[in-house]
Amino acid sequence: MAVSTGRLGSAINSMVLVTPSVQQNGNFLHSLENLIESGDVAELAKTKQGCFLLQQNVPLCDQRLRAKLYNAFLQKDVFYTLCGDPSGNFFMQKLMDRSSPVEHPVIVSLVQGYLTALSCNRYSTRVMQKLWLKLNDELRMVLLDELKGREIDIAVDPNGTHLIQRIIEGAPISIYGPIVETFVSTNVRLRTIAEGRSGRRIVQLVFQKLGNDILLPHSEDAKALLEKLMQGMMLNFEQFVNHQFANYVIQYIISAQVFTRYTTEAIKKLFGKLLILSQEKYASHVVERALEFGNTKVVGAIMDEIFNGYEHDSDGADALEILLFDQFGNYVVQKMFEIAIDVRVGKRDGSTYWFDVLAQRIHQRYHQLRKYSSGLRLIGRLASVSTFSYGLIGI
Question: Shortest CA distance to 338 belongs to which of 373, 291, 297?
Answer without folding.
Answer: 291
